[in-house]
Amino acid sequence: MSAKMTKEPSGQGRHAVDAPPAAANAVHPVDPRLLVRQQGFKGYLTESLRKLRSGELGSLPVVLGLAIIWAIFQIKDSAFLSAENLSNLSINIVGTGLIAVGIVFVLLLGEIDLSVGSVSGLSAAIFAVLNVNQGMPEWQAVLVAIGSGALIGVVQGFFFAKVGVPAFVVTLAGLLAWNGLMLQVLGSSGTINIDDSGFVAKLTSYYFTDVGAAYGLAAAAVLLYFLTAFSDNRRRARAAIPSRPTSEIVLRTVGLAVPTFLAAYVLNQYKGLPLALLIFLAVIVLLEFVLRRTPYGRKIFALGGSVEAASRSGINVARVRISVFAISGGMAAIGGLFIASQIAAANQSAGGGNLLMNAIAAAVIGGTSLFGGRGSTWSALLGSLVIGSISSGMALLGVAAAVNFMITGAVLLAAAVIDSISRRTQKVSGRA
């Protein structure tokens, strides 16, 4: 048996082998930066459609879902979209929403905090005991309560980040331990009523009745968005890097202005701008700024993307993890104070029931990924609106709580499925 040898032409053996021709139906990727530079707004529209096809859905599913939910309940009961019901809805979601903001930070790491419900109840109990039973000034009791929640987060974060105990186990233990401590703090009475005229009680009962307050907030929000986007554009243009066309910024600003001023109009038809909603929005904006525009926020996203890569880049993984759990505990404490404000008391049922599940569900339904590395504090607002709207609509229709739980569970499952499919689609398209 002999092998036939083929002599290679002189000088050709050192050349790289030509790549095989591309398939006839192959899709050649287009650099979005070139698309924007060449086509302006049309290029951005094309890029947005490409992102949707590749699984980057953003907040689109939850916005569409919320619109469908509101339409269904409005058809069933015309009182659903009344000014009074929407105003009450905006207050009812604040306690759970604030806790969900903390959950967003933990989910960005790809972890979970199961103790937030118990922490919120314990913090409310600490405030009530210090202020009502011990006579401590209200503002001091509030600071101690919030500080206690943050300290609990530090302790749990330490066991997770330093000792290596899984966050699920640490916070599950916390769920039991902090609930028991809350019962111990409240004592035999089990309920401590807070001062109806105090600051904490007014968190959910005070309204800015002047119509200028709601409209002023709407105008400030729209103006802040426009100035921020315009300033970013100028900075990117000076650095000779791709930037959004001015037409898109104007269109986005108008798109924000319409629902914002409509919300202000609706609120003014009842009692005005609720203090609780104002604080909730302020917290969301502040913490979103921390996530998007600070080195600390970028470290959180980096850890959610890859812990090993983040560690190799010099990020102190343990410190960031502990701080995130501290934020979660602190936000749980603040949410607990708002929940206590609604019932003007701290009792044994605080932090129990479906509070934990609703807080986690709000973050996930709002668009924060369960796999880490993708999410926003605005997810807490959107998710809380979905859950709160379902509860409000069911209450108006007189539907049993059991049905409410089943529907909320189905919505949560749908959000998780969308997140999973979106992530898989991005991997296939090479964008994950």
From TrEMBL:
Bilayer-spanning residue ranges: 57-75, 87-109, 116-133, 139-160, 167-186, 206-228, 249-267, 273-291, 322-343, 355-373, 380-399, 405-422
Recorded topology in the membrane: Multi-pass membrane protein
InterPro entries the record matches: ABC_transp_permease (IPR001851)
Single GO MF descriptor: transmembrane transporter activity
Subcellular location: Cell membrane
Any GO CC annotation of this UniProt entry: plasma membrane
Domain of life of the organism encoding this protein: Bacteria
Keywords (A to Z) from UniProt: Cell inner membrane, Cell membrane, Membrane, Sugar transport, Transmembrane, Transmembrane helix, Transport
Chief place where the protein resides: membrane
PANTHER family given in the database record: ABC TRANSPORTER PERMEASE PROTEIN YPHD-RELATED-RELATED, XYLOSE TRANSPORT SYSTEM PERMEASE PROTEIN XYLH
Functional note: Part of the binding-protein-dependent transport system for D-xylose. Probably responsible for the translocation of the substrate across the membrane.
Protein name listed in UniProt: Xylose transport system permease protein XylH
Organism this protein belongs to: Wenjunlia tyrosinilytica
